[in-house]
Write a structure and sequence with these properties.
This protein is mainly alpha-helical. The protein is 75% helix and 0% strand. The longest helix has 31 residues.
Length: 79
Amino acid sequence: MDIDWGALAGVFGVSLGITVVVVVMFSLGLAARDRAGHGEPAPDVPRGRQQKVAAATAVLCFATCLAVAAYGIDLIVPV
């Protein structure tokens, strides 16, 4: 039985890359959520454009992480 080391290294590289991308996207989502004020604006301060953009960025980053996780589960679980 032979091991195809090239294919194994390719799978390892792609897995490592996707893992790094998900961690970075989640971290950016947390940072954007913090800039948006955790979704709880102060009652006397109107939401500015920067807070709205930060909230949208946080949602986009978290949605990307969720999509990657769902795709990975879809690949693993047989239909």
